[in-house]
Amino acid sequence: MLGRSPQSYGIDPWEISFGFHGLDSLQVEHLRAAAQQAGLSVSHVIRQTAKSHAGQWLSPQDIDRVVVGMRA
Q1: Where are the domains of the chain?
Q2: Mind listing the UniProt keywords for this protein, alphabetically (predicted)?
């Protein structure tokens, strides 16, 4: 994932290399979709996820919790 160009997923791969060893294309797509549905910036969701998530493995449920918290 991190070796691909930013155009591969529409998100700068270095922007998401903040310690999530378990982040793959499925989570990237979920990040983008969740942010768009909530009307939030993908970059902002990524930064907030990095701040609020304690582990190294990120699940779609973790992303959803961050997005819900940002909308509140």
Answers
A1: 6-71
A2: Lyase
